[in-house]
Amino acid sequence: MGLVPPIYDVVVVGGGITGAGVARDCAMRGLSTLLLERGAPGMATTASSTHLIHGGLRYLLYDRPTTAATCLDSGLILRIASTLLRRLPILWPVYRGQAHGIEAVETLLEAYDPLSEQKGGKRHLRLDAEQTLRLLPGLSRQGLLGCVSFDEWWVDPVALVKANLDSARRHGAEILVGAAVTGMLRGPAGVEGVAAPGFEARAAVTVNAAGPWIDQVGRLAQARVPLRLRKGTHLRYEAKLAPFGLLLEAADRRYVFVIPSPQGTLVGPTDLPAANPDSAATQPEEVAYLLRTVRRYFPSFPERFDATTVGSRPILSQAGGAALLSRDFAVFDHQTRDGIGGLVTIGGGKMSDFRAMAEAATDLVCAKLGRSLPCTTSCETLDGRALERPPENPRAACREDPSRRHPRLRQAQALGRLAIGFSRHLARRALLGRPTATAEDFRDYYAG
């Protein structure tokens, strides 16, 4: 492979969507940047996602600040990557006896509407059982109350990573694929770069953006970044099996997506504790769980699928049960945290806020370099077209929330807000009646 030039401003470890976003931001600020990826960019955790740029509707039940922040950044991702994103209408069918009744579900969507608008989302629609069955004739009829609709953005995640890396290259970054980092170069002040088989790369700052592997990479410098990894499996069908996206409540009250796209159909994900992300594998009980859930609603849904995808979510270690885990992200300065200079870790988060994650990490890199360089990643599309600077949004400066360290308090705040919304919802329904959309309304609404 040859000797890599010895000194950069920043070396980024990891070529998933987080690392690609960091490399792009660093390069756009004029920093000499090298990204190292041990495999094919975007083909690990990023590729195993549900392929959505979404706001996190379900987080409104226990972590509203993360939903708000993610919707904000999803809107900026739409702004810079609009040619890669497709609007995906999603139907949420509701039955008698489910955990959340139709009024509670619509209340949740009413709370989501103004946040979703920040990412170009349309306000929800509600359909009765008859109109729902006109849209989904294969849906089980018994106990059906109707459905609500919302929309998210589908994306090919590997193409999104590639577009970020291409942009980074245009701004001067170097990208090395097949370069597994096996050690950290140490000096008097701390980390001074990384080592990989056959070469060393020296840098003023090393950014650990290795997703579920951030703890493994951190250990190379005697730094720990504890995670609570959660494994997610999807079933993949080559055929497009649904006209719209679906959100289905499973028997254990979790939710499973059915995501149709130009690439076929995804069903998932599962949500189980994980250990080593290198050994993540789909288990037969996960397949049975997903098939059982989707066939509960669509009895004729095919049992034979073409493949599975599996990956580990890089959730930061935190208190609380699995159902309350925040998907927020954090940037770790190992100088102040561990006394190890030259090393920064970006962890947590998800594809839907990768741009904000990159901005936060690169802000810290610039501070450590003593250079005041503003972020411009939302002012240029991934293919290089200049954009006007977006208006300032006060929510962008409000990511840090004290309740994040107290999941029960965070949940209580979220549920209290929804309880108020539920009361108002019932009052409106009593006063105005029960207006619902038709199947034609739905098709026209999402066609525009």
Catalogue the unreliable spans.
Answer: none
* CATH architecture grouping of the domain at 7-45 and 158-225 and 326-395: 3-Layer(bba) Sandwich
Largest sheet data: 10 strands, mixed
> What's the total count of β strands?
18
Query: CA-to-CA gap between the ends?
Result: 51 Å
SSE arrangement, N to C: EHEEHEHEHEHEEEEHEEEEEHEEHEHHH
Helix amount, in percent?
A: 25-40%
Overall mean pLDDT stands at: 94
Q: Class of the domain at 7-45 and 158-225 and 326-395 in CATH? A: Alpha Beta
Q: Which structural class do you get from the secondary structure elements?
A: alpha+beta
Overall shape: it is: globular
User: Which fold does the CATH topology of the domain at 7-45 and 158-225 and 326-395 refer to?
Assistant: FAD/NAD(P)-binding domain
Could you tell me the radius of gyration in angstroms?
22 Å
Tally of individual helices:
11
Task: State which percent range the strand residues make up.
Answer: 25-35%
CATH superfamily of the domain at 7-45 and 158-225 and 326-395: FAD/NAD(P)-binding domain
Brief synopsis:
By secondary structure, the chain is of the alpha+beta class.
Q: What's the arrangement of secondary structure elements?
A:
Blueprint: E1 7-13, H1 17-28, E2 33-37, E3 52-53, H2 64-80, E4 85-95, H3 102-116, E5 125-128, H4 129-135, E6 144-155, H5 157-170, E7 174-177, E8 183-187, E9 190-196, E10 199-208, H6 214-219, E11 230-237, E12 245-249, E13 255-261, E14 264-268, E15 272-273, H7 284-297, E16 307-313, E17 329-333, H8 334-338, E18 343-348, H9 354-369, H10 407-432, H11 439-447
Parallel strand pairs: 1-2, 1-10, 2-7, 4-12, 10-18
Antiparallel strand pairs: 3-6, 4-6, 5-6, 8-9, 9-10, 11-14, 11-15, 11-16, 12-13, 13-14, 17-18
Helix pairs in contact: 1-5, 1-9, 3-10
